[in-house]
Amino acid sequence: MIFSDKLQQATALNQSMLCVGLDPEPARFPLGMTGQAAHIFDFCAAIVDATHDLVCAFKPQIAYFAAHRAEAQLEQLIAHIRRVAPAVPVILDAKRGDIGSTAEQYAIEAFERYGADAVTLSPFMGFDSIEPYVKRHGKGAFLLCRTSNPGGDDLQTQRLASVDGSPMFYEHLARLAQGPWNLNGQLGLVVGATYPAEIARVREIAPTLPLLIPGIGAQGGDAQATVHAGLRTGANGVSGPIIVNSSRAILYASSGADYVNAARQSARSSRDLLEAARLQVI
Fold it and tell me: How many domains does the chain fold into?
C-alpha cells in the first residue's frame, strides 16, 4: 500500500490526525528505566501499544536512537509497529539533505533498513536531494518548509526576486512541492504549529499535499488554530490531510509507574481535541 493510502486509512480507522513522535530520552524514562538506553525499545514499544488505536502515524526521530547506539532498537521498534499496528504508517524523522550516491544510501537506510513509509528531508540542496526518495514507488517524503524554530526566519521568510511577486523562500518551496518536484504524488511539507497563519499560507499554495505539523503540546502550538489553518474546504472538498505531531507531552505525561496509562490519556485528549476542531471545519 502506498503511503498516502495508508495515511488515509489510518486517519479514518482511528478517527485521528494525531501523530505520536517517538523521541526517547533515557534520562526522562520512568523509575526503573531511568537513564538506561538499553530500555529504549521497551519504553517506546509500551507507548506504541498504548496509543496505536488513537493515531494516524508514528514518527520515530532517528537521532534519539543513534545517539545511544540504539539503531538496532529502532529497527526492532518499527518491526513491532508493523505487527501491532499494520495500518499505521511510520514516518522516519531523519531530515536528510544530501545528493547523489549519498542520498541514494540514505533512501536505502530509511526505506529498506528501517522499512519506513515516509521520511523527512531538508530540501536546501534542491531537487537533487529529494529525487532518490521520490523515485521510490509509494514512499512518502516530507520537506522542511516553514519550521517552528525561531531561527527558521533566517532563511524561510526571506523574499526571492521573482516574476511571481517576490515570494518568501518557504512559499517558493511549497509551490515546487505541489508542482514539478512531486513526481510520485507522495510529497508532503513540514510546517510548524507555532505559525498558524503561515500554515494557512502553505495550504493555500499546496492545497492537496499532506502537512506534517509538529509543535503542539510541549512546544506550545494551538491545536484548534492548527487544524483550522491546515484543513480548508473548497470546490473540490476538504484539502489534503494534516498530521499533527506531539512527542514529549505524550511520552512523558508521567514519570511514574503509570506512564503508559498517562500516555494513552494524553494521546486520547489530543486526538479528541483535533477531531473536534476538524468537525468545525468540514
Answer: 1
Does residue 200 sit within a domain? yes
Domain that residue 194 falls in: 3-277
What's the whole-model pTM score? 0.94
Answer whether residue 282 is part of any domain.
Answer: no
- Active-site position among 6, 95, 135, 139: 95
Block residue for cell numbers 536531494: 129
**What average pLDDT does the structure give for the chain?**
92
Q: Is 11 helix (H, G, I), strand (E, B) or coil?
A: helix
Flag whether 121 is in a domain: yes
pLDDT at 236: 65
pLDDT in tens, 189-207: 999 988 889 999 999 999 9
Q: Catalytic: 139?
A: no
Q: At what angle do helices 223-230 and 259-281 cross, to 10 degrees?
A: 40
Mapped onto helix, strand or coil, the DSSP state of residue 148 is coil
Residues 6+ apart with CB under 8 A from 251: 20, 21, 22, 23, 24, 28, 47, 263
CATH of the domain at 119: 3.20.20.70
| Residue type, position 204, single letter | E
